[in-house]
Amino acid sequence: MPDIIDFSERIKKGDRVALGRAITYVESSLPTHQDFIQEVLNRLMPFTGKSIRIGITGSPGVGKSTFVESLGMYLIEQGHQVGVLAVDPSSRQTGGSILGDKTRMMKLGASQNAFVRPSPAGKTLGGVARHTRETILLCEAAGYDIILVETVGVGQSETAVYDMTDFYLLMILSGAGDELQGIKRGVVELADLVAVNKADINSSLAQKAKAAYTNALHLFPAKESQWTPPVITTSALTGDGIESIWEEIKKHHQLVQDSGYFQIRRKAQLLQWMDDALQLEIFSHFFANKKLKKAIEAHKKQVLQLKITPFSAAKQLILLFLRQK
Ligand SMILES: Nc1nc2c(ncn2[C@@H]2O[C@H](COP(=O)(O)OP(=O)(O)OP(=O)(O)O)[C@@H](O)[C@H]2O)c(=O)[nH]1
Ligand SMILES: [Mg+2]
Q: How many whole angstroms from 95 Cα to the centroid of ligand 1?
């Protein structure tokens, strides 16, 4: 393994090779890689957190990657350094999504001011989410001041991304109802901005969708951030609406900075992350325990034979687990 101090310094200087390698360690399941990168992350922690983290969600094909390319290039023109990550716990990665993102983010991928990293493949949501959170920290330490996280509405990935970002952008298409687009009501409620994309195809339909969403958003209770989410029509393809969206994100950022909500939410997210990690750790220790395997099987049998309740089975197993330590 490389020297920890030297390697951390290289990341802080924005060395892209070191950053790429660091992310590979984050995604690795080898204990030596994990021990190493956790130490690097601990060293880098004080240099993280200084970016605006933006989550982008929406059904497959709505234009998220195209939008990220447009917004990312626009931000680079404004002098920003942009990190682009993805959370996609589905198996679509076997070719599809990674290749798709690479071709849809040609300009960003080639820019020295952007760092594009697709979602790691074949992992559970818990695993992917942890890796993305750690990758955000690495990118921030390397100087990226805007982080864009794309997710697709699969499983609980939308809430996972909401929990790691400062601003949550929902992309929709005009013309199809929410259910047809697979958009959950809870996700609409989380949105800080709704973008009606592909407005270039039919602008009057896009305007109608905008009006409908503006009304629908009014029915939700006021956000804790005191922010009223706007609805904006966009074309990720032509770049229409991109500037307005960035203006809204800046306005939101100013509002939450001034009110203190920004720090409150960041702190809550850190503690939430710790909680999630704790649960995952306990889980993996429990199920990796060889001595418990037999007992688990025996308890399953007893539950199925209606001899004990699932609750007491779980409780007895935990007691066994605790006594073993
Ligand atoms: N006309 C038009 N086409 C668009 C627009 N945005 C994206 N597209 C097209 O829609 C298709 C899907 O775009 P993507 O950016 O890959 O969509 P995505 O939401 O990232 O898709 P997944 O990652 O698969 O969920 C591509 O063929 C894009 O060129 C737009 O604003 N207008
Ligand atoms: Mg995409």
A: 17
Q: Which of 317, 284, 288, 283 is nearest to 300 (CA)?
A: 317
| pLDDT tens-digit map of 12-54 | 999 999 999 999 999 998 999 999 999 999 999 999 999 999 9
210-to-51, 106, 193, 283 alpha-carbon distances in Å: 29, 30, 11, 44
Residue type, 232: I
CA-based max dimension of the chain: 68
Give residue 96's pLDDT.
44
Does this model's pTM top 0.85? Answer: yes
Ligand 1 lined by 232 (C-beta under 6 Å): no
Task: Answer yes or no: is the C-beta of 57 below 6 A from any ligand 1 atom.
Answer: no
* CA 183 to ligand 1 center in whole angstroms: 17
Domains and CATH numbers, the chain: 1-46 (1.20.5.170), 48-259 (3.40.50.300), 274-324 (no CATH)
Most confident region among 69-83, 93-107, 155-169 by mean pLDDT: 69-83
CB of 98 closer than 6 angstroms to any ligand 1 atom: no
- What is the 86 CA–ligand 2 centroid distance (Å)? 8
86 in ligand 1 pocket by Cβ < 6 Å? Answer: no
